[in-house]
Design a protein that fits this description.
By secondary structure, the protein is of the alpha+beta class. It has 10 helices and 12 strands.
Length: 312
């Protein structure tokens, strides 16, 4: 890991008031996130849970730091620094004086004022116009395409709204690389462990533990649907086995909104229909029927031809 990015533990304890509840801005399965100011800049400080029983935390930490160091892109969250330190802590063990080792594994990244996409999707006033929703979809695909096109391809493997952060301009940043892996360009892999959020996992991963770039494509398809429908749209339609009906609902709902708010209703309506149709292709049960993320991006780019750039 890059020594230039190392931040001393005592500095992080100071700016988060020793990781106080008052400084905490988020909680997750693998760690808590705190807000602080470091060198005059607001940063998010993710303190990973120490999980020696599962033996995952070391690898999660190395994966996230390593991949963030490699990933410099406008739609990838920016790494500010990291900390990996061990401290001896005095403990009273049933009356016996003893010391225990505490390992601190911390990742620091830019603080994004818009928060996580999952929280915003529950807000009925969030991004009422199509162009903002489309920009979020496009930015997520741009970030994912960058990861897939790296010299050693990076698969995210846990893409979901909670791992997409928004800045003050609603520009999305793909985050949380703890489960990601580096792969060569051509291989499909099989893993023994299933880790992540099942709702965003493709069937071949749940059933046969198969990993390929199409895992991320399936996930981005679910995310696209939720951006267009709200956080429960995909789940409700999947449980009822009626994604075709979902398509019709999305089109009717957004056509009404676009006609009421857009200067380019025909063009944006066509773009919206292309987005829902592409999302449906992304969640095909057969991974060979799904497009690549580069193909998804190409499809989206073609929808922008007749819409002025300021509207896209």
């Amino acid at each position: 890991m890059n020594a230039d990015k190392r931040i001393p533990l005592h500095d992080l304890q100071k700016i988060t008031n020793d990781f106080s509840e008052h400084s905490r801005i988020g909680r997750g399965g693998y760690g808590d996130v705190y807000k602080g100011v470091y060198n005059g800049r607001e940063i998010a400080v993710k303190l990973l849970h120490v999980d020696t029983l599962r033996g995952l935390d070391d690898q999660l930490f190395k994966n996230e730091v390593g991949n963030l160091l490699k990933a410099e892109h406008p739609n990838i969250v920016q790494l500010v620094g990291y900390c990996y330190e061990t401290r001896n802590i005095y403990v009273d063990n049933n009356g016996a004086n003893d010391f225990s080792q505490r390992i601190y594994k911390i990742i620091c990244f830019e603080y994004l004022q818009g928060g996580s996409l999952d929280r915003r999707l529950y807000d009925h006033s969030f991004a009422p116009n199509w162009s903002t929703r489309y920009n979020i979809i496009k930015g997520i695909c741009e970030g994912l395409n960058f990861l897939h096109k790296c010299k050693r391809r990076i698969l995210h493997l846990d893409l979901k709204p909670a791992n997409i952060l928004l800045d003050s301009s609603m520009e999305p940043n793909v985050a949380d690389f703890g489960l990601s892996r580096l792969f060569t360009q051509t291989h499909t892999h099989v893993t023994e462990k299933i880790i992540g959020t099942q709702k965003y996992m493709p069937p071949e991963f749940i059933k046969d533990h198969i990993i390929s770039p199409k895992n991320d494509v399936f996930s981005v398809g679910v995310v696209m649907i939720e951006i267009m429908t709200g956080p429960t749209g995909y789940s409700n339609s999947f449980e009822m086995g009626d994604l075709a009906q979902l398509r019709g609902q999305v089109i009717d709902n957004w056509k009404n909104k676009i006609n009421a708010t857009s200067k380019y209703p025909l063009e944006e309506s066509n773009q919206m229909e292309t987005c829902i149709d592409t999302a449906m292709r992304c969640v095909e049960p057969d991974r060979n029927s799904r497009p690549t993320i580069a193909e998804v991006l190409d499809i989206l780019n073609k929808t922008e031809t007749h819409i002025p750039k300021r509207q896209v």
